[in-house]
Amino acid sequence: MEFINLLSFNTLTIAALIFVMGIAIGVVLFYILNRSVKTRMQKALGQLQDEIRTLRFAATNHLPAADVSTFPVNVLLAENDEVSQLVAQKMLEHLGARVTCVRNGEAAVAAFADAQAAGTPFAIGLFDLRIPKISGLEAARSIRAQESGRAQSTNTTPATLIALSTNTFDDDQSEALNAGFNAFLIKPVILSRLAEAMTIHTTATRG
Q1: What global pTM score does this model have?
Q2: Signed CA dihedral, 134, 128, 84, 167: sign only
Q3: For a disulfide at 164, which of 72, 123, 128, 190, Cβ 3.0-4.6 Å?
């Protein structure tokens, strides 16, 4: 009888310990996950604040009001980061562009082809080099291949392709230019430099 009571006591003790350990593990996991989420949110918020400050500074100091809306053209923006996409879109719209956004390289190539077929081609493409599915470099090569295939039958001006990257290495810039990009911009983008890069298109069409 005493053995049974002891066994029952030990079983209850073990069950209680398991229950307490489960709660403790749950609390620790909640703390870790909550801290991770909080860290990501703080990082995203900090990035957003930096981008907003960049946009405000650029709009105020780098582009006179008289020069706004000088690029009323169709622009394709390929950027998978939501914050960066929003900031770049607002900059492009501030410059008068009609902006279409995609989030990966495959969608960018398809969008260029569809727009051309519809008779409303994109004059400018703004591609982050690290977009998913296929990179910005591969997307640029595919678009240049599309243009080469049409060159014999149509007399159209090639699109101006602008690369976006956080890398500042000369090799990255050279690789982008070799892939078919016309310009290379370092992120975060400054409005005046974006306008300067877009001028490549207007210069080409006037020439």
Answers
A1: 0.67
A2: positive
A3: 128
